Amino acid sequence: MDLFEAIKNRRSCRSFAADPVPSDAIEQLLEAAAWAPSPLNTQPWQFIVITDEAKKNEIFLEADRCRKWAIEESGWTWLKGYPLVFLKEAPVIIAVVGDPKKTGVDMFQEEGGVGYQLACAAAIQNLLLAAHALGLGTLWFTFFDKPHMREILNVPEGKTPVSLVCVGKASGELPSVPRKDAKAKTTYM
Amino acid sequence: MDLFEAIKNRRSCRSFAADPVPSDAIEQLLEAAAWAPSPLNTQPWQFIVITDEAKKNEIFLEADRCRKWAIEESGWTWLKGYPLVFLKEAPVIIAVVGDPKKTGVDMFQEEGGVGYQLACAAAIQNLLLAAHALGLGTLWFTFFDKPHMREILNVPEGKTPVSLVCVGKASGELPSVPRKDAKAKTTYM
Asked: Which CATH code fits B3-171?
């Protein structure tokens, strides 16, 4: 698939068919992810491929718990209607786990290093584009409590579960979500 | 260009030719960036396209100041040899500025929202891939003090300069940097 076509036509998918994702497709997605740039080429990512139904249910329950908590904190009642069932429905969830020690020179900055998270995000964007090119839908999901997700996924203390990506065949058409014109977001100097 | 080809053959560029980058190419890069996913489609990015020589020199001096400081903090003497001159040589630097208020539901999490930075990173990855497809080299640069860079770029208090991307025609071949096999970074559950 043409790069620009992939970039413009990729959409978030919140409803997945039950069809399993072939393991060679998963490997292609992870290979694409691993070609992302990273600070000092530290490649600060690790991937956990989750297909176990009980584990997906634990993830769903954690997200649902966070949603309830966020509604209380925010008063955003519309969150009650925000679907989370895709966490159970998606045949595969790929957790992207980052290593804060592999963050490059920004580790010495006062606010702490964020380079490893940016690199993981670049890897995820590669993964989303690759999935689209293979005819797969994805959802990039970050709404969970990191220490809880660490426990659920048996991630060691020093590593950070940065994001989850739901992967599977989309069930139905994906809605096209517009973007603001980049020109309106650009200044020159 | 094919998506997978773009993902696998993109390289970081640290030496730029002086040739200016056509404005329509810049617009294509920013359009690609703006198609990235973001939390609740908040599109938390803004772009500053910098071609002014004096401004690029200010950016260089800030990075050089941070390098000296990092050498003192870290003892990483190899940083003395790390080139920064690409900040002056690159015909264009694109600053990607994020809005921490557009970070989605993770704003209620204890450690603060990071979703806007992940979205900016996804936008940057789109930009790097698009540049490669257009025959342009890029360098993703994050080593600067955010409050100082805010001043240099006249960014308002509430916004965060997330990264700079140097853009231009590569001067010479780009070295191929290997990756660890994704399989070695993957577990299944």
From this structure: 3.40.109.10
Q: B-chain residues within 8 Å CB-CB of A71?
A: none
**Site from A30, A99, A109, A127 to mutate, B interface, most B CB atoms within 10 angstroms:** A109
Domain edges within chain B: 3-171
**What's the burial of B157, exposed, middle or buried (CB within 10 Å: 0-12/13-18/19+)?**
exposed
- Which residues does A28 contact at the CB level (< 8 Å), separation at least 6? A130, A134, B4
Q: Per the CB < 8 Å rule, is A79 touching B143? A: no
Structure tokens at A174: 């994906």
Instruction: For residue A40, give how far its alpha carbon lies from the nearest alpha carbon of chain B (Å).
Output: 10
What's this model's pTM, rounded to 2 decimal places?
0.96
For residue A44, the distance in angstroms to the closest alpha carbon of chain B comes to 10
Nearest CA among B47, B42, B41 for reference residue A184: B47
Produce one character per residue of B95-120: b if its CB has 16 or more CB atoms within 10 Å, e if not: bbbbbbebbbbbbbbeeebbbbbbbb
How far, in Å, CA of A86 to CA of B45, rounded? 27
Nearest by Cα to B13 from B170, B135, B134, B179: B170
Q: Is B138 helix (H, G, I), strand (E, B) or coil?
A: strand
Per DSSP, which regions of B36-91 are E strands? 45-50
b vs e for B127-154, b when ≥16 Cβ sit within 10 Å of the residue's Cβ? bbbbbbbbebbbbbbbbbbbebbbebbe
Query: How far apart (Å, rounded) are the C-alpha atoms in residues A8 and A29?
Result: 18
Q: ipTM > 0.85?
A: yes
Pick from B3, B154, B186: which is nearest to A47 by CB? B186
pLDDT in tens, B21-73: 999 999 999 999 999 999 999 999 999 999 999 999 999 999 999 999 888 88
